[in-house]
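Q: Fold this one first, please.
A: Sequence and structure below.
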Amino acid sequence: MKRIALWLLAGALTLVTALYQRRTGPSYPLRGRETLCGQTVPYRLTRSAVNVRPFKLKVPVPENSSITGRIAYQRYKKGDSWNPERTVDMTFELVSLRHGGKKTVPALTAPLLWPGAENGLPPPAGKLAYKVTLSCGEESLELNGGRPVVIRFRGDVPAGVMIPHILVMFLAMLFGMAAGLEALRPGGKPRALAFWTLFWLFLGGFFLGPLMQKYAFGAYWTGFPLGTDLTDNKTLIVFLGWLAALLLGRKGRGTRLWIMGAAVLMLVVYLIPHSLLGSEWDYTIPGK
């Protein structure tokens, strides 16, 4: 395999894996399409938002329609009930949407405010479960088949932390896939690529990652042994896999096999949806 083909294939694996992980994760918006009173209503239900300002849910509706809506919500895993006190009528307004290109469209909107909070803002890693019901005359329907949608709130992460973290983790994946492919190549020398993979993993996962986690959820590390955050634990597992490959495969003793194993481990771990089993607000904290 020529070097240029190796890097193209490594890049393709990285891109496909990143897109799959992103689109299957619990923070990716839920999309669907319903028909009400003969009108098509495409929806995009948000599952991740910042907590620095009151969050407003937006459901685009056809122009000049008579569709109305309401939202019922509760704190996720708090044991709250679905009651009228937490049911909000949606209002009609023109809103600016950024997905699919910035545009102004008619929509039904309503705020989702954290129960009991003076300013309505949720805590970092706080989650709400909500249901959206649309009505038109005698007809009504619940979006997402009536199943609750869970939204998690986070702090506002500076672009100077988020963008480098994302780029460095992409580089780690790219070099890891390249190292694995180089190990498959007859006469390949993947050890240098494996070192670079470990370096990018350390920089992105154990320096920039904790900074991003602190801004978003108020803690530098919530994986093993401090918690069960799967994103942190995935980073730890992959890092240890590459470290083991370099230590156990030194001086030519099965180097290529160990590096191929680390690359496969990385690919499998990165196929796990992003933010699955992520940080959650701890209701056992007194007063919360």
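Q: Good. Now the second chain.
A: Here it is, same layout.
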Amino acid sequence: MRRALAAVVLTASLTACGGTSAEHTITVFAAASLTDAFTAEAEAYTKRTGVHVRFSFAGSQDLVAQLNQGAPADAIATADTATLDKVVAKHDATALFARNRLVIVTAPGNPKHIGDTGDLARHDVVVVLAAPTVPAGKYAAAALQAAHVTVRPRSLEDSVRGVLTKVELGEADAGIVYTSDAKSAGPKVSTVALPTSPVATYPAAALDAAGQSFVGFLTSIEGQAILARFGFMPPP
């Protein structure tokens, strides 16, 4: 139902764009884990509509806090539905557009020989995680609890990209990030499967008419192909 609504909105918006919208710009708040995929989405969207997209990437909880404090945006995409539900502003055309799983990332070649979540509790392994207020942090905590593993992280980051960066820079031996983040890092990290990972669900909401077309684009065939290229799974 939501995807059907979004598709209708997309069709109507594309028809309305015409030649006068080339200089129009919309602002989209998006979870940090969407950075690479949404940059590609924006390029394709601008090519199709002539509408440019300006992003603010951060932890989902920070984005919602900014919106609730009056920051202007046309649409928002978060890494879980619970965080999006905290948006005070009226929003329409909400759509689930992607899913994701968690993995353990290590230095290239996995020099500490981390094989599973149990190794994250070793005293010789420096671990960083996303903070519990961040969707990635909540998902990681759930995965560790399901594995009956207690980890004492060196730091708690305010976004999942903060976790990835510390592992890439060698400031941590391991961290838990989304599959899409690990894919974006390429050879800068090695990955270890996390069988107890819950599935993260990504919703997007238009905050005004200007954002409805972009939300619809995310669930279009073209938008979904871009997300898949960056390691995201399709919505349920």
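Q: Anything worth noting on the second one?
A: The beta strands are 25-31, 52-58, 75-77, 92-100, 102-106, 127-130, 155-157, 174-178, 190-193, 200-206.
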